[in-house]
């Protein structure tokens, strides 16, 4: 089995109307949410074999804020994760090497929401509240943990995953 973590970048600023969307920065609220998530991840001894991160500034900033709280073996910054379709996203996951046990993907909506709903089998998920939350909306700064019941990444198909947890910034304790 493989584990997939899907992290939507933290809240970005809309104040910079002249900045290209790819270059937008995190808002003050987004910075705080990423710091809160880092604190949460530190407590869980989070490890991923691979981190795939969109090249968008807000995704890279989110990663920079959580990086001190996690361990990982390899990092790839990929422009293709910026505004890709669900089909492109799932195809990218299928290309992962089978020696990668867990992958953290830091990317964008609606790709993450649609991909999570594609992967998750509701009958395999115990936490029905988390399942409702992820089906309704994938907020900025939210992190899903999905256990993939497949022999390898290339075998990913619809409904192959079990939602283990879904952490939203508003649910994390305040500092």
Describe the structure.
- The protein is an alpha/beta fold and 175 residues long.
- The chain has a single domain, classed as 3-Layer(aba) Sandwich (Rossmann fold), CATH 3.40.50.
- The protein contains five helices and six strands, in the order E-H-E-H-E-H-E-H-H-E-E.
- Helix 2 links the parallel strand 2 and strand 3.
- The longest helix has 17 residues.
Specify the CATH architecture: 3-Layer(aba) Sandwich
> What helical percentage do the residues reach?
25-40%
CATH class: Alpha Beta
Low-confidence stretches: none
Major sheet: order of its strands? 3-2-4-1-5-6
Fraction of residues in β-strands: 15-25%
Query: How many DSSP H or I helices?
Result: 5
CATH topology: Rossmann fold
Fourth CATH level, the homologous superfamily:
Phosphoglycerate mutase-like
Number of domains: 1
Estimate the mean pLDDT confidence: 93
Helix-and-strand structural type: alpha/beta
Radius of gyration (Å): 15 Å
